[in-house]
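Objective 1.3, modelling of assemblies. Example input:
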Amino acid sequence: MTSDSAEHTQVSPVTQSDLTVDCHVQVRLKSEGEHILLILPLEAEMPGAATWSDLWQQLKHRLNAGDRFWQANSTVHLMAQDRLLDGQKLQEIADALSEVQLQLVRVDTTRRQTAVAAAAAGYSVEQQPPAYSLNQKPPEPAQLLAEPLYLQITVRSGVEIRHPGTIVILGDLNPGGTVVAAGDIFVWGRLRGVAHAGAAGNRECRIMALQMEPTQLRIADAVARAPQTPPAQFYPEVAYVAPEGIRIARATDFAKTHLLLNS
Amino acid sequence: MSRIIVITSGKGGVGKTTVTANLGIAIARLGRKVVLVDADFGLRNLDLLLGLENRVVYTAIEVIAGQCRLEQALVKDKRQEGVVLLPAAQSRTKEAVKPDQMKKLLSVLAEKFDYVIVDSPAGIEMGFQNAIAAAKEALIVTTPEIAAVRDADRVVGLLEAQGIKRTHLIVNRLKPAMVQAEQMMSVQDVQELLAIPLIGVIPDDERVIVSSNRGEPLALAEHLSLPGLALHNIARRLEGEQIPFLDLMGEQDNFLSRLRRLFRG
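Predicted structure (tokens):
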């Protein structure tokens, strides 16, 4: 992929609203003060009927990949929102957390059954009234980006990672895997799957990889695919949006040609 | 300490069942007690490859339902001491069993055998979930084809999420001549993508088909063929021995191919 030949990239005429992707619909881990928040998505936010097993897989992927993000023996507050969790599911979550030296101590929920189950299991519980009815749209997500998500993981086929901020992946993004970020995407490894930066509509976002062989790159509403014939040699590269669509530059040149000019 | 190993791939037709049958026999030859569990409910094949079809009376379903004792369902392979098969039901579907039941069944088997080897069905649905429920380690079988490798990658991710981190890779049906001519993915290509340790490479061989049709696994043969030897080496690596990989490319590396490579640069 080079930055100068036009046939390498294809910008599709998709409207921005079609491609604005909600990055909040996955299990999230967030550090807040001395503890870590484990935030489950609202049932209304999950596309389709997301099952417990989907949620469970997301959680395990996050926990397996994020061990640099917390100190051992940190305490966790589970923000269960409107999820219905019975004693067994709470126990499974607590077990998964303890495997990575995290300790579940508190459960916040809007559902009475979950609150009862959590109290019975000995966690401190806070039951807030539902913030809005299920038919209503969830409140507008904050415009500020979330803190960067740092993952040490191979993103394998079938895995999708969404985050309302920048994503840093130490590992490969394999074909069939997807990373969607509201901010930038860094892949410290090979990028061979689908990467979507600036998913909330920010065209200033960039995608960076040590080895750029994507299935598809997306930045905000622009889409590009990789050239049919892969280059003979790979360099660290940066993908960005130019007036004519997504362009790719060698990382060593990008700093000189783009960053300094703009400053 | 017995080991529960699931043999899985995601994609169908890459040789899971053939590998299971042969590996079971190869491990038994090393003096271990092995039970092979067919988890492919509704599409059972493992008994065919082992040539034990006509001796199946009860299946795992009957054991789980409490209609027979576990010992009654186990079929001994008379040709190789130490190999026992727990067949799957052909008349039921994968939804007939739950992961919890499978877990219980396999943990009972684990008390009596050194190795519990589970032949997983293709796909990632209920049957796969059942097969991996109790497993502590996994062998991923793939062929050097892009679709098989992609599915294998997905399966490795699912296994990781399930907490099964001891996974090893078996590359099956490699054609050294095609790799040499750069018409087939090489073992390195596959490994680069999947990023899990390799435990064996099995060359493509017509004798595998013949042996499957006869119900006589290659690993049983007195004089081992190349694929049979590769399978025996996998068994020994599972036992912790350090065995160098077979040099499959060696016989292809003749004067002509070297000349060809020279000109290609």
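Residues 3-264 of chain B form a domain with the Rossmann fold fold (CATH 3.40.50.300).
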